[in-house]
Automatic annotation (TrEMBL):
Keywords: Cytoplasm, Phosphate transport, Transport. It comes from Hirschia litorea. The keyword Transport applies. The lineage of its organism: Bacteria, Pseudomonadati, Pseudomonadota, Alphaproteobacteria, Hyphomonadales. Homodimer. The keyword Transport applies. This is Phosphate-specific transport system accessory protein PhoU.
Length: 227
């Protein structure tokens, strides 16, 4: 394999990373807008998020097609093959986060009569943390930064703590006022979706580690919900 071929493969992998960056940007917007829709009870914005789900599917299919084509056409091996496979795994994780964002957005219409409260603020804070995790891990993927990726993975514990806190708050509110059971159940559902989105950010962090080193990071703790 001559140097020109190596350069071309490198360029194609860079283009692939750019395609994933576009997909990641869409998912970031979906998550951010889904949370904004819930917090402000903006049903129109929520419907826009739901509609973007189809666009995300198309982007994922496009990325996967390019990956398969690149692997077959270039007969990738070693680090190049790992990077291509890692890109496919990242696309899957992004699709799942997009699906979770869609699920959150769909709850908006069912909360329009629910007063602004501490629960809403707690969900907003949790959402900002998960959104930050997503942005940081996508940035880490773009430059293959293992250190930043592992930091995102470590901070997943903070997301779990947010979820457990919101769960307890919701249970307390439901016990105090039965009329709030329905709304609180929706908030618990959305908090769980955010917790799952945080898990997928951690998965992307592990994929980055695999892409660079050929190995997944050691498992340091079991992923078990406290509640």
């Amino acid at each position: 394999m001559n140097s020109q071929s190596v350069l071309n493969i490198s360029n194609e992998l860079e283009l692939l990373t750019g395609e994933l960056a576009g997909m990641g940007g869409l998912v970031e917007d979906m998550l951010s807008d889904a949370l904004s829709a819930v917090i402000t009870y903006d049903v129109e914005l929520a419907l826009e998020v739901v509609d973007r789900d189809g666009q995300l599917d198309k982007l994922k299919a496009k990325v996967e097609h390019k990956i398969f084509d690149l692997i077959e056409r270039r007969q990738l091996k070693g680090q190049d093959l790992r990077q291509a496979l890692a890109s496919m795994k990242v696309a899957v994780e992004l699709r799942r986060i997009g699906g979770l964002s869609r699920s959150i957005a769909k709850r908006t219409s069912q909360l329009k009569d629910y007063e602004r409260s501490d629960q809403t603020k707690s969900l907003a804070r949790m959402g900002r943390l998960v959104s930050s995790q997503l942005k940081r891990v996508l940035d880490a993927y773009g430059v293959q930064d293992i250190e930043s990726a592992l930091d995102v993975r470590e901070r997943d514990e903070e997301v779990d703590e947010f979820y457990n806190s919101i769960f307890r708050i919701m249970v307390t509110y439901m016990m105090e006022d039965g009329r709030k059971i329905g709304a609180c159940a929706h908030f618990m559902f959305m908090a769980k979706k955010l917790e799952r989105a945080g898990d997928h950010c951690s998965q992307i962090a592990e994929i980055i580690h695999y892409s660079v080193t050929g190995e997944y990071p050691a498992i340091e703790r079991s992923k078990v919900d406290e509640l």
